[in-house]
Amino acid sequence: MRMFPLITQLYIRNYVSIMEGFITDDQEDDASITNLTVQLFTVKSISHKLLEEEDAFFIIANFYRAEMEKRVSREGDDAAVKLEEWVLQDEKEYMKMENVISGA
Questions:
Q1: What pLDDT is recorded for position 1?
Q2: Residue from 83, 78, 51 nearest 66 by CA
Q3: Residue 51 neighbours by CB distance under 10 Å
Q4: What is the 3-state secondary structure (H, E, C) of the chain?
Q5: Could you tell me which of 48, 32, 27 has the C-alpha nearest to residue 102?
Q6: Using one digit for the tens of pLDDT, what is the confidence trace for 11-37?
Q7: What are the Cα distances from residue 76, in Å, to 44, 86, 89?
Q8: pLDDT beyond 60 at 49
Q9: Do 16 and 58 form a contact (C-beta atoms < 8 A)?
Q10: Global pTM?
């Protein structure tokens, strides 16, 4: 059990490079690294630790903001559209995660 929090801690610390690799690599929609992200971050005790000690929400939100700024500035960039679809899908999952954390 001790190993799982360490894995999630390392995952969030390397989140930006993991996601940059994911975006630049050709992807299968049903095999998304974002699905793994949601699975790791929906464990209530781990989520609290990542939010409080690792500033996970800032890391995730800042990454998406920076990526959208890069891609939206390019007209006709298919990557921006694809990223936006992933963000919308992830947003739904993160809202579920927020409800789990808050106990709603």
A1: 45
A2: 83
A3: 17
A4: CCHHHHHHHHHHHCHHHHHHHHHHCCCCCCCCHHHHHHHHHCCHHHHHHHHHHCCHHHHHHHHHHHHHHHHHCCCCCHHHHHHHHHHHHHHHHHHHHHHHHHCC
A5: 48
A6: 999 999 988 888 777 666 666 777 787
A7: 40, 17, 21
A8: yes
A9: no
A10: 0.63
How many distinct structural domains can be found in the chain? Answer: 1
What is the rounded CA–CA span in Å between residue 17 and residue 29? 19
Instruction: HSE, CB side, 13 Å, CA atoms: give it for residue 79.
Output: 16
Closest CA to 85 of 64, 63, 58: 64
- Hey, what amino acid is at 46? I
Domain range for 89 is 3-102
Q: What is residue 2's predicted lDDT score, i.e. its pLDDT?
A: 57
Residue pair 70/16 in contact (Cβ under 8 Å)? The answer is no
Find tokens 């000690």 and name the residue: 53
Return the closest-CA partner of residue 56 out of 4, 11, 5: 11
Both tokens of 57, joined, read 């929400």
